[in-house]
Amino acid sequence: MGFASFLIRRILLGIVVLWFVTVATFLLFFVAPQDPARLLAGKNTTAAQIANINRRLGLDQPLIVQYWHYLDRLLHGDLGTSYLTGTSVNTILKQDLPPTLSLLVGGVVLWLIVGISVGILSATRARTLLDRISTTGVLIGITFPTFVLGLLLLFAIYKPLNQAGFHWIQTGYEGPTQSVSGWVGHMILPWITIAAVSAATYTRLTRGSLLDVLGEDYIRTARSKGLSERRVVYRHGVRAALTPVVSQLGVDIGTLAGGAVVTETVFGLGGIGQASVTAITTGDAPVVLGVVLMAALFVVVANLIVDICYSILDPRVKLA
Predict the structure, then answer these.
(1) Are both 67 and 100 inside the same structural domain?
(2) Is pTM, for the whole model, over 0.85?
(3) Can you tell me the distance from the alpha carbon of 115 to that of 208, in angstroms, rounded to the nearest whole number?
(4) 199 neighbors 276 (Cβ within 8 angstroms)
(5) How many domains does the chain have?
(6) Mean pLDDT, the chain, as a whole number?
(7) Does 62 share its domain with 95?
(8) What are phi and psi of 176, to 5 degrees?
(9) CA–CA gap between residue 187 and residue 182 (Å, rounded)
(10) Which of 6, 32, 180, 290 could join 89 in a cystine, given CB atoms 3.0 to 4.6 angstroms apart?
């Protein structure tokens, strides 16, 4: 019953958060000094043409009426229609979401494996050569711009391999439903680009957290009982040390789901990041609202999963 009540509370809180996001984004876009109709009409336009666009899009109605219509459509699963293309926002997200989800899933798995593994090795071999190399790699990874790393991978790996006749690694996007190996071949370089920067953060975070945990009294007690060092580290230490890592993951998933614009652009993936940039540039409010709402949904779901993981990693944390 405790877990059920926790889940209901978090779902209700998530709904409130999503509603607040729609209000804030709607007001920010329509109260801003820029005129959506003028952005859509272009520079050389008349007042009559702007008025016609406002009337056609419903922008001549009071703001509260416009928001009510938007909210009513939203409750029926309709995110509206693009001002620019006339395409349903649902359709746009359906087309652009798979590349972003592929980037998210693969990148998260890769950076967690690399970041946590190197962090554990670095903490258990503190002040050794491996630790120093790891620390140097972390500094390079954190300071390296994503677009530079992406371009380096294109010139250092993609271009030479394709010139040599090895065409498995490609740019653009191919879904896993078409071919799993083709999907991996198209996504491997974007995954490395995303993971290289984030793995550095998780390496540093895991190392620092694990070093703190290994200095706790209960760790010394476990060692005094004759438990093997491997069991002490992995059974007792790592489990407690992963709590801040999980917390950081909840934030990073939401951020990445909002659109890794640079990575998507460098590798020609498409994705909701590129869609949002185009929509903001052209004043396409329904698409902007749809992308922001989708990103907020990812944040809400990610943080719900984080809270559940807390209770698994630390028995002292209760969900009820």
Answers:
(1) no
(2) no
(3) 12
(4) no
(5) 2
(6) 82
(7) no
(8) -65, -20
(9) 9
(10) 290
Task: Give the residues across from 161 on adjacent strands.
Answer: none
Range of the domain at 31: 2-75
Angle between helices 285-313 and 271-282 (to 10 degrees): 140
Give the CATH number of the domain where residue 226 resides.
1.10.3720.10
Helix (H, G, I), strand (E, B) or coil at 88: strand
Domain end (from 25, 44, 75): 75
Instruction: Identify the band that residue 316 occupies on the pLDDT scale cut at 50, 70 and 90.
Output: low
Q: What is the mean pLDDT of residues 209-222?
A: 86
Split at pLDDT 50, 70, 90, the class of 163 is confident
What are the respective helix, strand and coil percentages of the chain, to the nearest 5?
80, 0, 20
Residue 84 maps to a domain: no
Measured in residues, the chain has a length of: 320
In the chain, the amino acid numbered 255 is T
Q: Which helix (H) or strand (E) holds 87?
A: none
Residue 101 lies in a domain: yes
- Verify that 156 and 280 share a domain, yes or no: yes
Task: Report how far residue 79's alpha carbon sits from residue 87's, in angstroms, rounded to the nearest whole number.
Answer: 11
